[in-house]
Design brief:
By secondary structure, the chain is α+β, with helices and mostly antiparallel strands. It has one domain: 2-Layer Sandwich (Alpha-Beta Plaits), CATH 3.30.70. The chain contains four helices and four strands. Strands 2-3-1-4 form a four-stranded antiparallel β-sheet. The chain is globular, with a radius of gyration of 15 Å.
Length: 112
């Protein structure tokens, strides 16, 4: 079911990431610490960041799982495509991980 565009403005959005981090010490120093500052600029919240995600069904590689929440889909996408986040993406992709995927999910609009 597709949500009407007007609902996406007021509905929360989520960013889900499952990555294979090569070494956690440089990942925390070079990516996770500066990431918090950029995330705050877009009113994002870390709901979970863990090495202990449990697969209940299917297959997924990776040793690091993150779930973020944003007030809207527009803010989630603005965060990901922002000039401030771009250097962190480059560092993550080129230096800190060997594989993974990141996706954005529209949330459900608040019940009325």
């Amino acid at each position: 079911m597709t949500q009407p565009a007007t609902d996406l403005v007021t509905a929360p959005a989520y960013v889900y990431a499952r990555l294979t981090v090569q070494d956690f010490a440089p990942y925390i120093e070079k990516y996770a610490m500066p990431f918090q500052t950029v995330l705050a600029q877009f009113d994002g919240t870390v709901l979970s960041a863990t090495t202990d995600a449990e697969m209940l069904e299917g297959v997924s590689d990776g040793n690091w799982t993150v779930l973020l929440q944003f007030p809207s889909l527009a803010q989630a996408k603005a965060f990901y495509h922002s000039d401030d986040y771009a250097p962190l993406i480059k560092t993550r992709v080129e230096e800190l991980k060997t594989s993974g995927h990141i996706m954005v999910l529209p949330g459900m609009p608040p019940a009325v």
